[in-house]
Amino acid sequence: MQALKDGNGKIKRGWLIGGGVVVFAVIIIVVVMAMPKHLSGKYSHTTTFLLSKSTDTLKFDGDKVIEYSDGEKVNAGTYKIDKDQLNMKIAGYNMNATLSDDKESFVINSADGLANLGSGYKYTKASN
């Protein structure tokens, strides 16, 4: 412990500066880790009605989400994540979903208007 102190018993200036830099770096790392994470990639759900099959895909990039129906772009919007809750606003409709722990899937809980027909649908991340 004496190596940290000068002849007057005070902590050396270099150690104070180094300690301050370490504390600052730890604070920055904690803040960055606490920031909300974004999704990336495509999540899809396939529905079969009578003899017709339809695939709805949501592509996430940054804070944007684009909806594709059978490969054709149909809507765009934004989203936010709060813990395990995924809140999306697509084409004026608000949708709420619950993310899985590994962020590989989510289930629609509720939505505005006709979009609420998707409640209970599970979207799974594409492997590619």
What's the SSE blueprint?
Blueprint: H1 13-34, E1 41-49, E2 52-61, E3 64-69, E4 72-82, E5 85-90, E6 93-99, E7 105-111, E8 122-125
Antiparallel strand pairs: 1-2, 1-8, 2-3, 3-4, 4-5, 5-6, 6-7, 7-8
Which labels suit this protein?
128 residues, alpha+beta
Radius of gyration: 24 Å
Mean pLDDT, to the nearest integer, reads: 85
What series of H and E elements makes up the topology? HEEEEEEEE
Query: Helicity level, as a percent range?
Result: 10-25%
Strand order of the largest sheet: 1-2-3-4-5-6-7-8
Catalogue the unreliable spans. none
Number of helices: 1
Span between N and C termini? 55 Å
Largest sheet: 8 strands, antiparallel, barrel
- The coarse overall form would be rod-shaped
SSE-based structural type? alpha+beta
- Percentage beta strand: over 45%
